[in-house]
Amino acid sequence: MRKALLIALTIAATVVTALVAAPPFRSPITFSEAASMMTRTAVIVSLLFVWIIAGVAVTLMSGREIRYSSIEVRTSPLHCFALGLVAVTSFVLTAILFSYLIPYLVGIPLLLALAVFAIVTKIYGTIAVFHAIGTIVASARTREDLSQRRWLRGDLAMVVIGVLILGAIRLIPVVGTVVWGLVSIFGIGTALATKFGRREPWFLVWRPVSAG
Amino acid sequence: MNETCQRYAEDPEANAAHLRDCLACRQMYALLDGAIDSQPVRVEALPMAAWEGAGYRSWALVIGGSLALLVIAFTLCTAAGISLLRAVMSGMSTAQWRSFVFNAAEALRVASPVLQVLYGVGFVIVNTALVLLLRRAPRGIDA
Description:
The complex is a heterodimer.
Chain A: H1 2-21, H2 31-61, H3 63-75, H4 77-100, H5 107-138, H6 143-148, H7 155-170, H8 175-193
Chain B: H1 3-10, H2 18-21, H3 23-37, H4 59-80, H5 84-91, H6 95-110, H7 113-134
């Protein structure tokens, strides 16, 4: 079932890309349009290569954290989505505030710190979503299935499968951009919800010291 | 079940002598212990944990997938007449975001006081919502 879904998704992405590249009911595209589309596809695939390298590196360094964040996005998708939306809005509003403070010098380091935090959150969260997509599509459901598999198991494999599936979707014009935007929101949400997979609270609860 | 049986049920260690005297309790607890002992844990019947098999490193898939993407990217870049590095750099550019943020800050600087106050109120509301959402403990493995 999942293999069929995977193949169908890949074929669908290929067909849609081909239809957009060479639409059957439209006048032939000009040379500059074709060159522009080729450049756009080259940029997307080059970025996918960077994503796969980043995904493998982060998963090797902190596989358990990525797995915890992936579990969170699968068990509480609505919370992750809401948190991601609010966090992105907060990043933008805070960046505008810090840019407003640039003439007072304090804005520059604050803006840099915010940019680094936002980029790290997006990269980590997106890799967690790759893992979640890979697990939903290609993970083993039973121990027998797991023991029979030779290479399609483990965190690394799930991340790679996730990159390839979302990469195929990314090639679809408009749909790909929307899907990757949603992936970013889910990713930022799950990264913040799990505190980058550490599952620690962001804020300590204040309690008065009890006597004795 | 009389009062001594009740006391034994509440604290078996302190009333251990009761089990020697009471035949009904002895039979009942022997039955209960036997029921527990005779059912070994069947690991295969338990649901699979997320960490099972997770540590396996599938280098064949990683190298295959990376090389395939690299070859496709290199071919497309060559066909488009740009270098791979330049394609990556242009894809990672944050120029649009930077110009949006700087333009918004400039617009805010020259905006009317009412709009500036509205921006401040929005900023406080969004960040309060963020803090409230961050206070929820992750469910994840406990779900």
